[in-house]
Amino acid sequence: MIQPAQPELVTVTIDGKEVSVPKGTNVIEAARLVGTDVPHYCYHPKLSIAGNCRMCLIEMGMPMADRATREPIMDPETGKQKIGWIPRPQIGCATNVAPGMHIKTQSPLIKECREGVMEFLLINHPLDCPICDQAGECKLQEQATGYGRGYSRFIEQKNVKPKRTQLGPRVMLDDERCVLCSRCIRFSKEVAKDDVLGFVDRGSYSTLTCYPGKELANNYSLNTVDICPVGALTSTDFRFKMRVWFLKQTNSIDTESSVGANTVVWSREGVIYRITPRRNDEVNDTWMADSGRVLYKEVQAANRLTAISANGATATLEGAIAAAAELAKGGNVAVVGSGRSSVEEQFLTKKLAAAVDGEAFLVGRVGEGDGLLISADRNPNTRGALVTGLIDKLPESDLSALGAEIDAGRVKTIISVGEDLSAAGLSAEQLAKVAIVFIGTHGSDTTAAAKVVIPTLTVFEKNGSFINQQFRLQKFAKAIPGPAGAIDDLVVLDELIAALGGEATDGDLKSVWKSLNAEVSQLANVTYANLPATGLLLDSSAWAGLSFPEGESLHFKPAAAEASA
Ligand code: SF4
Ligand code: FES
């Protein structure tokens, strides 16, 4: 395990409480560390400071000293150094803490400031919470509860602005709800590097829009919806589908690539409604790609497998395991594992390969990285296959080596753990020469040709872990139950290993982790239950010599780039 470096601390006093916070922290974040919320709209921890909403006003002062002698000026009443309070409130987002600084976030002046800002923000707001998709997670709604007047002094006509403007294929804008915080503009420019948004017109008529001829269509566009503090930007996929307070949140991991962006899966009664990013400052900050947000649709895909079959007929799990074991006992078996399987499943896949005395293959998926949160390695868990020992070198991009073994008659049975063998390069003729056992989630040419098919669970329906490109072990949790007929991959693998006389576990996470602790040195001291939500960096020195395909991404530098930096 790698220990992170400790930051330099400065001591400040917030609402009378002394606290040490990392140097360079602004007042909003410093207050957060002592459990105090400084309300804000335009500030976002991962964007530049705009300082335009004025909601984060605080009072600030420094200990006084004699100008000539620099001696502290003492307060005879308290016996402590006097504080020189700045007469006007300051914005907390643009004020960094300094040693000895005093801050007031709850004074009568600050309360009055917040009420004034809220009154201005609500003057032209349509107040359409009952039909607004942001209700329940709207900062304007939240702050109105704390600092709203409860009635309006505004008797003039409200401004009318464009409604339902499609900014891009996935993002809808309601300009009347926009509080002009500019978060979406800054995100597009600073993070997505797609500078398409801006304000036009002035004062109360300021309006967010795309530049002429442009649209908000980049693969990170939905992050603007996440960070819009109000209901101005909404997702065309999610809007009007479900009220957020009905949804259960489950921590998960984006499986699009080896970046392993941390996510939250939002579900209700076994149905997933959306996926949003989860903050991890070491991996994805607060962002994720749009393409990862629709992966939940695979759960209900038309080709989802739900029926166990063996030799062309419906079977029980016992029957299918017996049929698969029978095929494997004939010898000349190859096991195709997956870089999309969890660490635990890969570990059992290795045991399965040992039980059949067969070679283990892995399908490499390499595409173009986008330099942000989609890396060149499109498997979420290639490192898991290395750490568990399922493979000892980087996988080829197709199974042509296995194809050659089939053609030479050295492989007669293939057990595929989730991989579509034809998509991975095996021809129909090659598939026809072997008996296939398929353990996975979706139908394909491989399942059509398979002798035994055992349906299993998607990443949303089970617990497990992946190891990302940084060698960070990150866990995901079960958000919804699997469909009737689908069986946990660990159970299937374990039963098959047992049927083949191999080293089985109890087919659950706990027992697999007991074996992982005992047999994998990098995981010797890791407890699955205690894995931090933001993951655990493993010692990767054993694989330093491999040429991984990834280039730089948000928080990752390939070893060669790091060495030259
Ligand atoms: S649309 Fe939302 S994020 Fe963009 S400026 Fe308006 S309030 Fe801010
Ligand atoms: S958060 Fe908007 S001005 Fe500070």
TrEMBL record:
Pfam family, one: Fer2_4
Keyword NAD: yes
Positions of the 4Fe-4S Mo/W bis-MGD-type domain: 247-303
Required co-factors: [2Fe-2S] cluster; [4Fe-4S] cluster
Transmembrane segments: none
SMART domains: NADH-G_4Fe-4S_3
PANTHER family xrefs: NADH-UBIQUINONE OXIDOREDUCTASE 75 KDA SUBUNIT, MITOCHONDRIAL, RESPIRATORY NITRATE REDUCTASE
Protein name as it appears in the record: 2Fe-2S iron-sulfur cluster-binding protein
Lineage: Bacteria, Pseudomonadati, Verrucomicrobiota, Opitutia, Opitutales
